[in-house]
Amino acid sequence: MTVLTLPARILLFFAGLTGAAGIMLAAASYHGDSAVLLSAALVCLANGPALIGLALLSMRTAAALAAGTLMVFGTVMFAGDLVARAYLGFGFFPMAAPIGGTSVIASWLLVALAALMPARKG
């Protein structure tokens, strides 16, 4: 049995938070008829399960840990900015959602790159 490393456990923690946020945002979107919240929910629901896989893969390749870290950052920036706009009437800062979205796209491209990289030795 393999013991998860601290970075893998941290990614799993954020996977759980992201998945929970996705479900809550989907419910809020449905009850409030909000396309903005639905967009945030979809990003969370796509990235939460991916973070589980990246957490496990991070013990074999550093690229997976980098992808997971970037995915967490991008998800928080993108979905968080949309949620702030929906509930507070303003976002984190100008360009937060595009920066977050670009970060998520880059994290998924890093996932593809990680698939081509050799596993860690040992």
Automatic annotation (TrEMBL):
<dbReference type="Pfam" id="PF04241">
    <property type="entry name" value="DUF423"/>
</dbReference>
<feature type="transmembrane region" description="Helical">
    <location>
        <begin position="12"/>
        <end position="30"/>
    </location>
</feature>
<feature type="transmembrane region" description="Helical">
    <location>
        <begin position="64"/>
        <end position="84"/>
    </location>
</feature>
<keyword id="KW-0812">Transmembrane</keyword>
<dbReference type="InterPro" id="IPR006696">
    <property type="entry name" value="DUF423"/>
</dbReference>
<feature type="transmembrane region" description="Helical">
    <location>
        <begin position="36"/>
        <end position="57"/>
    </location>
</feature>
<keyword id="KW-1133">Transmembrane helix</keyword>
<keyword id="KW-0472">Membrane</keyword>
<protein>
    <submittedName>
        <fullName>DUF423 domain-containing protein</fullName>
    </submittedName>
</protein>
<feature type="transmembrane region" description="Helical">
    <location>
        <begin position="90"/>
        <end position="116"/>
    </location>
</feature>
